[in-house]
Write a structure and sequence with these properties.
Layout: H1 2-8, H2 49-52, E1 60-61, H3 69-74, E2 99-102, H4 115-129, E3 137-139, E4 145-147, H5 148-152, E5 155-160, E6 163-168, H6 178-191, H7 194-200, E7 215-218, E8 224-233, E9 238-244, E10 253-255, E11 271-273, E12 276-278, E13 282-284
Antiparallel strand pairs: 1-8, 2-10, 3-4, 5-6, 7-8, 7-13, 8-9, 9-10, 11-12
Length: 286
């Protein structure tokens, strides 16, 4: 199957993320340097996101309903503190200074699960966990919708240049077959990206502040995307925690600046983050 991907990926017109492992621009962040009195922002013994990231003094974590998408994000499982970000080939990336946690989801063994794909992975995992199988579907950059239920019925995409058609060409599978679900996601990773997410996801043009689950996207080739996964509030101010994947495909990680995971972000066309400066950003949500 992966040999097929290597061939068809050559026909892709749009690349989801930057294909170079580097910071696009050095952003100016509103997240302060971590001072001695703020060491308690991180609990290195905790392996759940909301337990690892401790609120700033006088701030409180935003509470979310049980079993909700937002609650799922706050309760993401993490690897042990201090683990490095790894590429899909098992080697370490050069920038190990801008994260305070690694999610437990696998990367895969090929360069597929990049920036947009990492966040698609989380949404798909949430829906799969809650057996919301009919809600698991994503659009390719071409605009064609491909559902998990279709894959489970043996339907596969056939790509000819920029044209996509679907054919009943494989055996059927149970909807709770996780191994096949991962193969389905690899197809989505190949043909979806920042452009399709920016085009197809929901948008609130009257939004005044970020909410958990919001995606900050600069669509394009290259483009990039991060997601808000936690939020704290002191009544007047808000701070946000972010996760991202990147290119080459690598561990999904919690971003930080000087070991501080809380960012002072404003709804704007330009949003600075530690590894990417978002220009002409759009804010979307699943």
């Amino acid at each position: 199957m992966m040999k097929i991907f290597k061939l068809i990926i050559l026909s892709l017109v749009v690349i989801a993320c930057n294909k170079q492992e580097k910071i696009i621009e050095k952003p100016t962040l509103n997240s302060p340097e971590l001072k001695t009195e703020n060491i308690t922002l991180i609990n290195p013994k905790a392996n759940i996101l909301k337990d690892r990231l401790l609120p700033i003094s006088d701030f409180k974590r935003v509470e979310t309903p049980a079993n909700s998408w937002e609650n799922f994000l706050q309760n993401l499982k993490l690897q042990g503190f201090g683990k490095p970000i790894l590429k899909y080939d098992g080697s370490e990336i050069s920038d190990q200074k801008h994260h305070v946690g690694i999610l437990t989801y696998d990367i895969g063994t090929t360069d597929l699960q990049q920036c947009a794909d990492a966040l698609i992975r989380l949404r798909a995992e949430y829906l799969f966990k809650n057996e919301k199988y009919s809600d698991i579907h994503f659009r390719f950059t071409s605009g064609d919708n491909y559902a998990w239920e279709s894959y489970a019925k043996g339907i596969r995409p056939i790509i000819n240049g920029n044209s996509v058609r679907f054919s009943q060409s494989a055996s059927t599978n149970q909807l709770n077959n996780y191994q096949e679900f991962r193969k389905y996601l690899d197809i989505i990773y190949t043909y979806a990206g920042t452009i399709s997410l920016a085009r197809d996801l929901k948008e609130d043009r009257n939004k005044k502040e970020f909410e958990i689950g919001d995606l900050i996207i600069t669509p394009g080739s290259p483009g990039h995307v991060v997601m808000v996964v936690d939020k704290i509030d002191n009544g007047d101010q808000k701070r946000y925690a972010l996760i991202e994947g990147y290119t080459p495909a690598q561990s999904i990680h919690i971003l930080s600046e000087s070991a501080n995971p809380w960012f002072d972000l404003k709804i704007s066309d330009n949003v600075p983050t530690p590894r990417y400066y978002f220009k002409n950003a759009v804010i979307k949500h699943f």
